[in-house]
Amino acid sequence: MFPRIQLKCVLSLVLVFAASAMAQWTANTSLNTPVDTSSNEQQNPTMTSDGAGGVIVVWEEDFGGSTSLDIIAQRIDASGNARWGTDGVSISVVAGDQRFPTIVADGLGGAIIAWYDGRGVDTDIYAQRVDATGSTMWSANGVPVCLAAGNQWDPVITSDDAGGAIITWYEARYDTAADIFAQRVNGAGVVQWAIDGVPLCSELNGQVTPVITSDGGGGAIVAWLDFRNGVVELFSQRVSQSGMPLWADDGVRVCDGSDFQYAPDLTSDGTGGAIITWNDFRTGEGSDIYAQRINSAGMPHWPATGIGVCIVIDYQYRPRIVSDGLSGAIICWYDYRNGVNSDIFAQRVTPLGGSLWSPNGVQLCGAINDQQFPTLVRDGRGGAFVGWQDTRNGSNPDIFAQHVNDLGVAGFVADGIAVSTATNGQEFPRLVGNFSGGAILAWGDRRTGIHQDIYAHRIVLGNPDAAFGYWVGGIATDIEAAPAYAGLHQSALDGSDPRDILEPSTLPANYVSVTSVSTTADRYLQDVRQETPELAHTAKRWALESRTSETGSLVNLVFTEDRLPSQFTPVLYAVESGSYTDLRSVPVYSYTPSSTPGEPTNLLLLLGDSTKPSISVVSPNGGEVLVAGFPYTITWNSSDSSGLLRHYIYYTLTGTPPYTLLDSTIGQSSSYEWTPMDASMGAFLRIITVDSVLNVNFDTSDTAFTIVSGDSVAYTTFAGWNMVGVPVLQTDMSPQGIFADDFGGSPINVFGFSLATGYSVPDTLRLGKGYWLNTPTARDIDAVGTAQESVTFPLEAGWNIIGNPFPAPLQKSLLRFTDGITVKTISEAHSAGWLVDLLYGFDGSAYVQENVSLAVWNAYWAKILVSNLFIIFDLNPSPARGVEINLQRARPHVQRVTNR
Q: How far apart are CA 231 and CA 251, in angstroms?
């Protein structure tokens, strides 16, 4: 069966873009994908699925100081992107140590995390919930689960199937020996059972190191090491969703007839019970692997002494277990049967306790040196992925992995594939399935040689018996019983396997079907596939219909990847809603069907090229000056061989992200009419383009452009004399009209300059001309009017004061001069003998040479060498004849001089 996954909605297209643009998975086993590589020490990682093909990883991090060890988490999505910042989000960062986090998915894309916490006088149990965006949902630094006197240790967690979690731990509350307690926390972070938890076992002599699994009915099954009889035994207890122990007081014995049972692990049997495994020292000559199945009533299914999973000579250690999906289990361990070094073995046991694979297990890795500390996860097809710590390459361990199918046959090369072979050692891997034919591993990593970091890696399984493609199936999430499989039979090897459901009339009462309608003769529920990888270079489309007997309830369609080549981009398009889903990132599509049973939902599956479309911003690409309130045409160039789907137009007014979405255009467009409304000294444009199968590319303005205000422009003067130029055309351009409101009745001292008349008080202030203004103290001045796009006025031979006539800085290189016949830049005019290409402003105490741009409200001395010359101010001038003008935004640069 496919796992039950409930998603509230389909990810929006923009989110898919972000994931696609930052994909981090790599096939390079010496690089891997960083989860946290900050300068602190990160350790003890563990993780759970995010429900969308990615993982949520949590670990303890040593920040030093009063906080010391804290709990940090990160989400890595299905494409390998870190979604919660560079180094994760803080789960608990209070004083004292927070250690050994344990985690379970919350069913809504987030997770619930528990840990033991030293913020108080002793260690307590705390928990926190984090949502899919990385926001913590409960009280800062967690809610208390147990604050009883004395220490609580080693919490473990499972889902309560209602958005909350059940947590168990051990503590010495009643005497000097430890006991087992548990507590349920709901989705809002409120404890549901007795304060500080309910006791599951309070027998004498101590009970420690519990393990936990869901019972499938909202409760949990817990097993632990128990010393009540003076030896080390395993006991177990089932607790209901209401906190009631359901089996014998203080638990039931898992195994009779053995004096030392160690390292238990357990999994649900799918019928309200559990299968428990451990390594067992009953022979006195080594340790073996045993297992027991306890039913929902607490009775053993198998012999009272358990079944021998592996009873060969020497030592077998640390078994780990997962369900096979059919009330049996797969168990793996590390094993010394072949000599002084350990290897990895596995076995599948049936619901009746029989072994399905080779007696005493199949060897998954027999490479030289030690392979230890295996971890495993079910693959959804009756097999499992297994990862381990491996020293075949030297004393520093690496991470390797293997797949074993439902028949016990290895899916990767002999002895497994390398997952991480970076320097200095990687240890204690953890595994999570990703719902697309593969798995994700995370581990502690010392490749820097300085501190330990957290890394991750994705492994993908190919089905050797099938052409590449997608398995398509689905479930109706509101069916309380085990959901009926729809699509391919779960053991099918290709699209024409006789075990497939062939006709809708054979479907069970509750069903979801995905039917290919490409031809009338090919309507069985199938996987969608092509025959040759070469077809990946051209976009391909398949029409699909999804039909369900359910009405008005959430339906999930699961698209499981099977050896799909990396050059494919898989996309699901929902015809009715117009939404797109990148199936490599989100392999589950959720929708609510119509009120008519069997009414089809129309979909398109797109398998196309992975070549990004080309895109380049033409304008504004840097240096342009736009005026707020005036229309401007944004232009770009883009193309793609498979066709363009849409362009998304973003802008920023701050010069840095985040960018704001302006609008989008459909298809092969190349322009957009924009009327900016806000001023900016450093605006940038970004165009994102998407082709027909969701390949994404973008381009950003090379440098900043300016948006000037069209009405009010303010400026703060120096105390004393200032050289100013009015930046907008006001209705009243007299000195009184410009400055009366700023001086509040005080005398206004404004002087213009002309070689012919010297200094004089002007009647009217002209745009482009400069003036001296005296303000006894620093003062705010402003003008309210209309920005002009071009200003021209005559110059005299000799010294002239010119003023910036615009409400934005004007680059010196944009100044133009004309004798009425030709137009020249300032440097060309200097070369022609028209002027000296030096401008001098005034900073309140001395003249300052300006080499780059004319500031807003500022004026400058300019020396002209010929008569009958005009200056042209233009925000976006045409290049002068034979001259290429640099429109890039220059950095301000001034040179101080002491006199003119």
A: 16
